[in-house]
Amino acid sequence: MDTTVTTGTEDGVWGGGNQPLGASYGKMMMWFFIVSDALTFSGFLVAYGFSRFKFIETWPIADEVFTHVPFFHGNYPMYYVAFMTFILIMSSVTMVLAVDAGHNRKQSKVILYMFLTIIGGAIFVGSQAWEWATFIKGDYGALETKGGRILQFVNAETGKRAALADFSQTLPEDRVQHQGYNGIWYQNEGSRTSYSLNEVVEGFKSSPNILIRTETINEEGEKTLLTRQESLAKLNEAVYVVEGANLIRNEYGSRLFADFFFFITGFHGFHVFSGVVINVIIFFNVIIGTYEKRGHYEMVEKVGLYWHFVDLVWVFVFTFFYLV
Amino acid sequence: MGHEHKLEIFRGLLKFKSNTQKIWGVLIFLSIVTAIEVALGIIKPEFLTKKYFLGMKLLNWIFIILTLVKAYYIAWDFMHLRDEKSSLRRAIVWTPIFLVSYLIFILLFEADYIYNVFKDGFLAWDF
């Protein structure tokens, strides 16, 4: 018949049987995706660098922002992020072991290692959710000036940061939260802060041991501490109380800092999440013996490539967000 | 599958008996590098934070170099680029390196320019 498709030429050069790069179609496409995704992440991280170089003298210091470890109180800069990094590298290792077991056609080992990889990924995503929750909640609180700069508070006696609750007064004032059903249509304010601006200002005036810390980084690499006199003068410029972080303002410093934090770690977290989902699918495929029937475990290898890529991106996010 | 694995790292300084052993070896190496990074980040030795090279603290240069070292071992041993054909490896590695270096160069210069405008120009933003 004329319409019969011949299959005899597939091994020839012009039939597409040639593999100059020695990689299968699926693997090539995974690499295509990874390279383009790497460029996307580079775009984000370089944009972060751009904003940071723009405000090089006032950018928040990461050590002072990420100081929390779950179930422990106190100041532990970076330990938890280091733990998260280790978890992700560890789950990368179990993934390579799964790929290696796949090469050797050991189904039960692939299942075990894929399972461990999924657990590692879940721990990482959970940790990141916790990190976000802590970041959004905040712990000290700050004031914002008219120009959008953040003023933080320090106890002059101990030299440690002072929270708003440490010195703010409770004044007999009462203000109702503005909600959508009263006043201008469908315009409501976000959640109220625990202290009003007036309460913070009055509290500051009556506690002589509290000083203001501005965003500016001095030559020692620390935030500038104002004297009591300067602090009182600076206090007049405050217009908002800021607690925690949202996409508009955050108590840590430059507004862009929180925006980039949410955007970059969020985008990475989404990658980890989808990686876990894909791993789960492949995990079940391994269990029901799909690749055993197919005769090879290349699918595990392709998913592995994606998983390692997520790990690779985290290594960069870790450096540029938490270390540098 | 009959895949050949190259079982040596550090340019042949360290040889492993099996692929599994190599994986654990690389894990140990990556963990050590991460531990060094975290320790440096917490201690912040003064001789590294006071010295500048090309406008950046020496400590930050160390962090970036260690990151690239980690990235190299993740890509070469975990993503087994070491076992791929060199043409595939080069296509994957040099394309982003070229594009990203260009992006970094152009954006950081621009940012520095804006920083100077904010600093010296007649523009108030820190109030």
Q: Secondary-structure element order of chain B, as H and E?
A: EEHHEEHH
Q: Roughly how many Å is the radius of gyration of chain A?
A: 27 Å
Termini separation of chain A comes to 69 Å
Rg of chain B over CA atoms, rounded to whole Å, is 20 Å
Main beta-sheet strand count, sense and barrel state of chain A: 5 strands, antiparallel
Going by helix content, strand content and strand pairing, the class of chain A is alpha+beta
Report the biggest beta sheet of chain B as strand number plus sense, adding barrel if it closes: 2 strands, antiparallel
| Class by SSE composition of chain B | mainly alpha
Q: Helix fraction of chain A?
A: 40-55%
Low-pLDDT sequence parts of chain B: none
What oligomeric state do these chains adopt? heterodimer
Number of strands of chain B: 4
How are the strands of the biggest sheet of chain B laid out side by side? 1-2
Series of secondary-structure elements of chain A, N-terminal to C-terminal: HHHHEEHHEEHEHHH
Instruction: Note the overall shape of chain B.
Output: elongated
* Form type of chain A: elongated
Mean pLDDT of chain A: 89
Q: How would you describe what is shown here?
A:
The complex is a heterodimer of chains A (324) and B (127). In chain A, a hairpin with a 4-residue loop joins strand 1 (142-145) and strand 2 (150-155). Helix content of chain A is 54%, strand content 8%. With 324 residues, chain A is of the alpha+beta class. Chain A has a five-stranded antiparallel beta sheet with strand order 4-3-2-1-5, with helices on one face. Chain B has four helices and four strands. In chain B, strand 3 (52-53) and strand 4 form a beta hairpin. The chains are: A alpha+beta (324), B mainly alpha (127). Chains A and B meet through helix 1, helix 3 and helix 10 of A and helix 1, helix 3 and helix 4 of B.
